[in-house]
């Protein structure tokens, strides 16, 4: 009967432990993620430009050379590589936790027991025994203790907590890889954007210089007419002021070129130097630009993949936090030489070993574990919301870039027609002015209008290329 009661005392806690363990080891329920629309706008194609490699997408040799240089020298990419190495080391740490730890130990110490204690009386009485020789006699009153050997500890992963932590570390490694890919896509887009901005500025300089030549000719013409009595000083002053304003624009654009080149060189990881580039007229927009199915193309985005992997890592953290409430099985052992005399430390009789295993689990004051669980749950929800926001942002960026590309093309066609009309108006105003049928104010207005609209046309053409680059980046293109 007594034996039966003892078994009950052991069995009841075991059943409770097993029941709670089965409950806590169940996978964490993951909230539903956001669903994406079926298509971008009215597109129904299954492939998109995001799947095109950047060497194929960008056909300008100068631009591809710049991208190659940046992928080798950009400092942000070098930082990202080091973060990957840190994440990889976390996997080794988590993997090492699954294996027993073994350490060498050489230690020495001592203790003086009280005369009126069990150890003190026992040690004193032992030395009077006839069963011990001089080597076994205990030093008095100070008792040294020497040890040289190996000590080991091992937590057996009976619930899978350590494996779950390793899984979280592995997902974070993959997420750090995707973070590097996101930097690559952003870097390629930045370089291409700066490159096309430089070419647009070159075009603006050509337009400004062409207009400076036309305005200088107009100033010379009106000066001649003034001498002939057909114009007055006010007309000379107005045309001269317009010429000076246009000349100041040239220096302003030149400064923008310097700033853009320097920013581009920073992305390339080098000091300021001239940037080799082509011309806007050599660039062409690809026909039939498509975005692809959102569910497929957004998965190509490295930031979406990064958010998804971080979400999985936080789910693993949440599971590990739950498993921390369960008892852990720990085994400790040592093997070595142990002696109270240094001269006898390495003798055969000093060999000592021990092995101890046991279950240890939290019973009281589990607030720290509960706080850790709540923190992991909050972090997991935060990762879910971050993932959903990343998907929504990606869809918005693609949709905006598609519409911008379409609208800038239409605006560009209209601007070309407007510039052609204004160029004809400049020629007409000059002819009328020479024959006395137009005033110098009409000439100034015509020249000013054509200059402004030529610059606007250049800006619209630049925005077309930038919209295409942004669409390529938004679809996750360029990280292969």
From TrEMBL:
Its main location: membrane. Residues 1-25 form the signal peptide. It is found in: Cell membrane. Transmembrane segments: none annotated. This is Efflux transporter outer membrane subunit. The keyword Signal applies. It comes from the Bacteria. Belongs to the outer membrane factor (OMF) (TC 1.B.17) family. GO terms for molecular function: efflux transmembrane transporter activity. It is a lipid-anchor. PROSITE patterns: PROKAR_LIPOPROTEIN. InterPro entries: MdtP/NodT-like, OMP_efflux. GO terms for cellular component: plasma membrane. Keywords: Lipoprotein, Membrane, Palmitate, Signal, Transmembrane, Transmembrane beta strand. PANTHER family: OUTER MEMBRANE CATION EFFLUX PROTEIN, OUTER MEMBRANE PROTEIN-RELATED. The lineage of its organism: Bacteria, Pseudomonadati, Bacteroidota, Cytophagia, Cytophagales.
